[in-house]
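note to self — DONT lose this again. spent like an hour looking for the file last time. sequence + predicted structure for the chain T wanted, 280 res
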Amino acid sequence: MGSNPRSLSFLLFLIGLAITTGATAQSNSAPDNFAPTGIVYPIHDINLSLPLDGIVTSVPVKAGQHLVKEDLLIQLDDQLQQLEVQRRKRIWEDDSQINSARENLTLLESLVATKEELFETSRTVSQSELKRNQIQLNQVQGEYQALLEAKAKAELEYRIAAEILDSYQLRAPIDGTIVDIIPSEGEWVRTGDPVIRLVDTRTCYLDLDVDLMTSRRIAAKDTQLFVQVSVGETTVRRAGSADFISAVADAGSGLLRVKVYFDNTDNAITPGITGQLIIE
């Protein structure tokens, strides 16, 4: 019995559709042993700069050196600012005018009190003279308060000058290792220009892009994550935690950005290399 060509064509269409649907479903769901790859980065990678222009007088560090927070990195020429700080400090600490005004105020207060008593008891002091002394007292009191206010402002100006002096030194904001030093002694540096690159590799993270299904596996509470990299002929594997999973997928690829942090205190893993995320 001959076959119907229309039925045969429809059957082939159904078979092709099933194959296509199966292939699409398989491509949209990653297998359990799938290990997405990414790049390893240090937790801190900082380009340091200075807040002012100046000439470099000292660079007491070198590339590759490990530092602790507040270690001196670069010293600028600060001779003029040191003199300014000394000048401001002397102005602030000068109490000669305040002491003189205080003594005059004490004497005038005593004089006015005496004349007020004489005016009330014996009228041996005229009212106009008493008024004149009271006006003088008010003026001296105002001058004394103005001197106290000027001293407070002088202290603020001294502290501002001292803070500016500290800006002539660049210190390490974190513990880390120097990757690069740009200026040398005697060179002029400008405000905001990068001068030192500092990294902290004690903690690193694997930066990668994954599909929605993989991101859900990563976020599951019972999931264990491991970062695995090849170092020469050996493989280094570290437990990690996904502290960042993007809430928005990339519009072009549909992938989500994930950062998996791991301990690297022994510096066994060098940032900048490719790593795999093992999901168990």
